Amino acid sequence: MVDQQLLIDEVKKVVSRDDVKYVIGYKKGTSGFAISPAFAYSTEYADKFIFNPLCKKNLAAYPLLEDKLPLKREEKEDKRKIGIVAKGCDTRALVQIIQEKGLKREDLVIIGIPCSGIIDHKKITAKFPNETAYSTIEEEQGFYKITINGKVHEIAKEELLADFCSSCIAPNPVIYDVLIGEEVEPWNLEEHKNLAVLEEKDVGERWEYWKEHFDRCIRCYACREACPLCYCKECMADLLNPQWIRRSVNLSENTAWNIMRAYHLAGRCVGCGECESVCPVNIPLMELNKEIEKDVKKMFEYSAGMDLEEKPLFGTFRPDDPEEFIM
Amino acid sequence: METLILQKDKLPKLIEKLSSSHVLYGPTEENGFSLFKQIKDFKELNLKYLLTRVSPKSLIFKQTETLFKFIPGRKGAVTSSKINEEKSIIFAIRPCDARSFKILDPVFNGDFEDPFYISKRKNTVLIGLTCNSPEKNCFCTSFDDSPGSTENVDILFTDLDDRFYVEVVTEKGKNLIKSIEDIFEKSTKNDEDSKRNIVTNSVESITRKMDLDSLALKLDKMFDHELWHNTAQKCIGCGICTYLCPTCHCFDMQDESTLKLGGRVRIWDSCMYEEYTHHASGHNPRPSRMNRVRNRVYHKFSYFPKNEDISACTGCGRCIDYCPVNIDIIDVIEKVGVIANE
Amino acid sequence: MTVTETKTELEEFEPNIIGFLCNWCSYAGADLAGTSRIQYPANIKIIKVMCSGRVNPMYVVNALQQGADGVLIGGCHPGDCHYQHGNLLARRRMAILKNLLEFIGIDSRRVRMTWVSAAEGRKFAEVIKEVTEEIKKIGPMKDIQRVNEW
Question: Does any domain span residue C144?
């Protein structure tokens, strides 16, 4: 468990630095189990900061989302750093973005948080559909203790833990300036649920499975917007000339979109699960991402966002890359 | 208004009858959530959920609609698209979602008449279902609506445990019922009271409230307030709020073609995307997320009410439930109220 | 009864194969096959690209959407790339793409890659034969084809 007071103190320390613009973290949401991203410009605001297993949102998307409006006359660009509260996967996303030169390491102050897995919001709201507020949520020896209206509910961790967390390779921050509390023990890695089942099916059955999911896609592109690594200035899906993907929503275009979304994250996806958890029509996008991650690991011994110095997967090659498939 | 009773064991019969004469849409469960789909059999129906994930506006204002067809090139020609005249029914639509059509009507049947929308609207019978247990983010009562409102539906069903209390509201509803009257029974005063109790209970269980009192005026005074910046800072521009919203109706039109044939299609768009307002010149009048988030709120609660005399919100709470960063429209409006009172 | 009518449906299926061939090796190889009068199936429609590394995976998906039953990407042999290592970058991309398509349920045999040098006219013809045979066996690609409803 992360000590809330320790977190608040560190955030206060960081935000009061002259070279820091603001700190991005989490605060309690307005209803139910919602968590809201929070931006602390002052030490007073930092008091609202929390971290609990519900803090799923990958905040690494925010430094890139910052609105850079045209400067007024004689206005100078604010070049101060951004503080960010980051779990393991969030720091992996940051590493990946830094590798790709989307951000500079020196522009960030990373407040690292050792994470022991997060709760899937869809699972917990299904369990407590009508709770309007909770008071505390704690993790204790394989159980989550959730206090709602003074009543403590003990729920086994597996029941609420997000599926993608069980195959997380970096529960501890990869890079950080400050670490809150002790590093956690990495857990036994399990392959992402359902991958093995799908791999065993034949091609036709797999298509039936994905067809049903892609058919439902409403192409809101929330998966893209939520992903910390989808930060292209102009997405290929938005291009009109050439128009790779038509705007009409049908199986063909939806499949093309989903293939390309997953493909563009090959060797870049850090497994934070944002795409899947925001998807309004519950498409299991992480299954695609995890499958690619597995292939990348197997074929190229490469994991995204683990090392600042590493070259991007597709920007490099090895002479002995697998080529059995080449005629 | 005619009131009737339908025993629950007669529901399969009803579905069978309705689906044989009409295209019948009803809520179905799939992958842990509910969606409106065409149903042929009673078993596909799932009335467990309060709201479908994607609102039923998608059945009338379709996400993709072909407006006309054309042949590209020098010998180009345009042929108009056939208008779908099939009779359909939306079964178990919630009163708030039904109300969304009242909001969409002036858009598609106002200054400009959209034949596709009008035809579907005309040929669709709305069969409502009273909400027995509203969800935590429901706030339809703020818009003078009620979980048991008959205002915008043709027929309203109310679940009274072992039977449905059926209120036939409009001519359209009457015509539909006429041919299958034999499966219904007469209702009693008792049933009416039971429905009233259910609605009263539902209304009481709605805890969230939006203060709409002279909201448009309040908003007028705070266009440049920093609230918009603060709210939008956490927005990731994903557009879920607008795609799931029953009243959002922005669209884009695109030409799609092969070398020989093409069509102009209308697809949903969202004001939360940067691309939405991007001019061909490169200029973007809403360059930042602040402008876009502000526009969404203003459109719903200031521009639209000024033009059409109705807020473009039904209080279904979908945008609150599914916003990944917890931008809570009630909370935003609450803050507007606080700022206006200062 | 004409000859075509006696044929079974499968035999009648003539696949559409799009070939993205690199300007320096594979395209020249195809050219050589042509000038040497080597017979190969006419199912392939060639699009010349400057390098196999130029082939965006979107080209492949888009080809499948627009009615191709198979896609062939041709590049120089490793080490021979006109741009040093474009083909080796393409190799990585296609390895991932093939696996992803297979996972989604699109037979990965529809997407093939080959190294053909400017001197290998015969190999080019062999490759086309093999690919065409195989795709005939798999059958037409209907799953993600555009419907063009209008």
Answer: no
Split into its structural domains, chain C has a count of: 1
Above 60 in pLDDT, residue A259?
A: yes
Enumerate the residues of chain B whose CB falls inside 8 A of the CB of residue C150: 66, 69, 81, 256, 261-263, 265
Domain membership flag for residue C87: yes
- The CATH number assigned to the domain holding C36 equals 3.40.50
Q: What is the ipTM of this complex?
A: 0.90
Mean pLDDT of the B159-185 span: 90
Residue C82: inside a domain, yes or no?
yes
Are A325 and C134 in contact by the 8 Å Cβ rule? The answer is: no
Per-residue model confidence as pLDDT tens digits over B33-72: 999 999 988 899 999 889 999 999 999 999 999 999 999 8
- Give me the domain span that covers residue C115: 13-138
Mutate to test the interface with B, among A218, A227, A240, A261 (most CBs of B within 10 A): A218
Residue type, C50: M
pLDDT at position C10 is 53
> How distant, in Å, are the alpha carbons of A98, A232, B110, B120, C48 from that of B174?
65, 55, 27, 19, 66
Q: Is A252 on the interface with C (CB under 8 A)?
A: yes
3-class SS string, chain C: CCHHHHCCHHHHCCCCEEEEEECCCHHHHHHHHHHCCCCCCCCEEEEEECCHHHCCHHHHHHHHHCCCCEEEEEECCCCCCCCCCHHHHHHHHHHHHHHHHHHHCCCHHHEEEEECCCCCHHHHHHHHHHHHHHHHHHCCCCCCCCCCCC
Determine, for residues C150 and B258 on separate chains, whether the beta-carbon distance falls below 8 Å.
no
pTM here is 0.93
CA-based nearest residue to B105, from B244, B213, B246, B205: B246
Domain boundaries, chain A: 195-315
Contact B40, B19 (CB under 8 A): yes
Residues whose CB falls within 8 Å of the CB of residue B306, separated by 6 or more in sequence, listed in order: B216
Give B198-217 pLDDT, tens digit per residue: 999 999 999 899 998 889 99
Chain B: residue whose CA lies nearest to A28 = B326
Instruction: Characterize the bridge pairing of strands B262-268 and B64-71.
Output: antiparallel
User: Per the domain annotation, does C53 fall within a domain?
Assistant: yes
Enumerate the β-bridge partners of residue A50: A26
Check residue C2 and give its pLDDT.
44
